[in-house]
């Protein structure tokens, strides 16, 4: 039986927190690792932060995920987008597969609302041909149901937000099996995730 860390409201009050955006309701498809993997990734992140003398905020284990597709940011989340997303998700047919993460790096990140230094995401990069196939298949189904989907995809799991960049470097591999994906409602800057629905990968 698969055990998950509970995904619940987790409030992280970052230094120099941006103003709440005009469209605070975000909808995305994502993959959540099992609880054991999440805790292992968090321990790895803590070690990386310590070794590189980084200052910032670690992502809580329950919020560690790989984003598949960003559906959009909305002033108010509407049922029609959730309905279209569910239709797209139901069209996906794949077997479970394994993801391997063996390197980390910092993404550039966006400047803060007050114009101060960027909050750079430190990410764990994922490798998996079936993961790329899932992204492509789900994206095609989204377009058929009137949703926008990105063609470019860099599989990654955000571990930490800070100002100091970290160059690409290898790390001991972390592997986990993906047997489902989820539609997630994220309330921006409050860092609160609500998993709306999950779809198992059964082939």
Oligomer: single chain
What structural category arises from helix and sheet content?
alpha+beta
**Rg (C-alpha, Å):** 17 Å
Q: If classified by CATH, what would the architecture be?
A: Alpha-Beta Complex
CATH class: Alpha Beta
The strand count comes to 9
Beta-strand fraction estimate? 25-35%
In DSSP terms, counting alpha (H) and pi (I) runs of 4 or more, how many helices?
3
What overall form do the CA principal axes indicate?
A: globular
Characterize the biggest β-sheet. 5 strands, antiparallel
Taking pLDDT < 50 over at least 5 consecutive residues as the criterion, the unreliable ranges are: 7-19
Describe the structure in your own words.
It comes from Phyllobacterium phragmitis. The chain is of the alpha+beta class and 203 residues long. The protein has one domain: Cyclic Phosphodiesterase, Chain: A (Alpha-Beta Complex), CATH 3.90.1140.10. Helix content is 22%, strand content 35%. It has helices at residues 35-51, 79-90, 129-144, and strands at 25-31, 56-58, 66-74, 97-106, 120-127, 156-162, 169-178, 180-187, 192-200. The strands form two sheets. The chain has a five-stranded antiparallel β-sheet, sandwiched between helices. Strands 3-1-8-9 form a four-stranded antiparallel β-sheet, covered by helices on one side. The radius of gyration is 17 Å and the shape is globular.
